């Protein structure tokens, strides 16, 4: 593949790395970033099999962009920035960790050979995670986490130890579960996949490299016979031009299915306060909702004083939105939550503005419900937002994904805080 000088608006510097299917260029006018240029080439078995495939570069580039844009939207930390051309994209400059991280939902392929006695289709719950050292000459041998730690990789001045392995393992499973749920919306099973990590100049671990049809197994309707991934190419005995067209057609199908795969933004959390004096408390709930990517609207109505008006507000939303959660904020004698719960089939969450001097009374009026009512009660604004997100996430995988990302980010934050405090302090 000939060296090029410029792609789109980007002036290219030297080639930093070249693999079987892509080139990585320095960007002298954009420090901290690189350009990855895909090749019209497909390979398997660590380069033992390789063919030119016209159009693959563009398909792979678009597929990779859609996957990373989805992950970025969910809040996953990745190196991907944006598309640069039909065949290239911009990414943060990273030094790569020389490990392939593989996640499996079903046992198939090489896993069966390495684990005799496991039948094909055995389901892993939670997903099975494996690691392989990138070494083409030795066919990428499987490594344990202990081997990775013992090796003492130093990547962009970051020593890869137990904490870093924990972060990459949990992020690997996170990425798999997000994409698994995305593919479920297309009635397609994500069987297994591999990703790689890089470390940027700030020492941050990012999902890097490429995620495209070379990276996973996809079985439409969960049927192995319908596979549309690179395994079709790997399984070929003799590769003909017609076979290559079939592979290309499969890759294009995958790219097409990713179009519009991000769920519609058609949900709403309605916060109804019993008095304008509760506005500060409601704004804290609203902020926590927005931090989770939730749409939110605030209203004022008293179920005691204007019951018909409260029910009218409820009806306004019921008539136009199908993914809906009500959060009610009322102190003293809380009739707002119970009245809504008794008149709607949508979820209702009480979040009373607790006053320390009247806490027991205020809280009791929210949790001591008449029979037949099912509204939950929480006392912290963040808890109300998280509860709403958990409910809406049942039908919207992007909301669910942001919750899972929050869990992994909590792990990362605690790991970093522990690293800063760790060490024996002399008396």
List the topology elements.
Layout: E1 6-7, E2 10-11, E3 15-18, E4 22-26, E5 33-38, E6 41-44, E7 49-52, H1 56-74, E8 80-83, E9 88-92, E10 95-96, E11 99-106, H2 110-114, E12 123-133, E13 142-143, H3 145-151, E14 154-155, E15 158-159, H4 162-184, E16 188-199, E17 205-208, E18 216-220, H5 231-234, H6 241-258, E19 267-273, H7 279-291, E20 296-300, H8 307-318, E21 323-329, H9 336-341, E22 348-350, H10 359-367, E23 376-377, H11 381-392, H12 397-421
Parallel strand pairs: 19-20, 19-21, 21-22, 22-23
Antiparallel strand pairs: 1-2, 3-4, 4-5, 5-9, 6-7, 8-9, 10-16, 11-12, 11-16, 12-13, 14-15, 16-17, 16-18
Helix pairs in contact: 1-6, 4-12, 7-11
Structure description:
The chain is of the alpha+beta class and 427 residues long. Helices cover 36% and strands 25% of the residues. It has 12 helices and 23 strands. A hairpin with a 2-residue loop joins strand 1 (6-7) and strand 2. The longest helix is centred in the last third of the chain and has 25 residues, at 397-421.
Oligomer: single chain
How many whole angstroms does the radius of gyration measure?
Answer: 26 Å
How many strand elements? 23
Largest sheet: 7 strands, antiparallel
Instruction: Please give the alpha-carbon distance between the first and last residues.
Output: 63 Å
Unreliable stretches: none
What percentage of residues falls in helices of 4 or more residues? Answer: 25-40%
What would the principal axes of the Cα set say about the shape? elongated
Structural class: alpha+beta
């Amino acid at each position: 593949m000939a060296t090029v000088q410029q792609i789109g608006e980007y002036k290219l510097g030297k080639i930093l790395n070249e693999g079987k299917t892509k080139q990585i260029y320095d960007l002298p006018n954009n420090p901290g970033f690189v350009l990855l240029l895909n090749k019209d080439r497909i390979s398997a078995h660590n380069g033992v099999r390789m063919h030119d495939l016209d159009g693959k570069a563009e398909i792979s580039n678009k597929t990779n962009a859609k996957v990373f844009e989805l992950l970025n939207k969910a809040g996953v930390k990745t190196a991907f920035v944006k598309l640069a051309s039909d065949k290239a994209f911009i990414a943060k400059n990273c030094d790569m960790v020389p490990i392939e991280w593989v996640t499996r939902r079903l046992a198939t392929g090489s896993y069966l050979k390495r684990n005799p006695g496991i039948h094909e289709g055995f389901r892993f719950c939670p997903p099975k995670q494996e690691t392989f050292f990138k070494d083409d000459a030795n066919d990428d041998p499987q490594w344990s986490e202990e081997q990775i730690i013992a090796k003492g990789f130093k990547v962009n001045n970051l020593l890869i130890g137990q904490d870093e392995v924990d972060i990459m393992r949990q992020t690997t499973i996170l990425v798999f579960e997000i994409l698994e749920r995305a593919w479920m919306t297309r009635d397609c099973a994500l069987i297994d996949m591999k990703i790689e990590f890089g470390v940027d100049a700030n020492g941050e671990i990012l999902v890097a490299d490429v995620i495209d049809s070379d990276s996973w197994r996809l079985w439409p309707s969960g049927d192995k016979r319908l596979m549309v991934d690179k395994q079709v190419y790997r399984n070929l005995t003799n590769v003909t031009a017609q076979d290559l067209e079939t592979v290309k057609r499969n890759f294009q199908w995958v790219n097409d299915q990713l179009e519009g795969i991000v769920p519609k933004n058609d949900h709403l959390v309605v916060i109804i306060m019993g008095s304008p004096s509760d506005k500060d408390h409601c704004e804290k709930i609203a902020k926590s909702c927005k931090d989770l990517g939730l749409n939110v609207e605030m209203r004022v109505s008293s179920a005691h004083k204007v019951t018909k008006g409260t029910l009218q507000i409820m009806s306004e939303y019921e008539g136009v939105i199908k993914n809906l959660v009500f959060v009610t904020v009322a102190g003293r004698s809380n009739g707002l939550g119970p009245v809504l719960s008794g008149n709607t089939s949508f979820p209702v969450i009480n979040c009373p503005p607790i006053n320390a001097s009247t806490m027991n009374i205020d809280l009791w009026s929210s949790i001591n419900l008449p029979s037949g009512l099912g509204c939950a009660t929480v006392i912290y604004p963040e808890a109300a937002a998280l509860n709403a997100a958990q409910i809406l996430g049942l039908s919207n995988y992007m909301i669910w994904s942001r919750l899972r990302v929050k869990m992994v980010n909590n792990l990362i934050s605690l790991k970093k805080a522990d690293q800063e405090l760790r060490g024996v302090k002399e008396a």
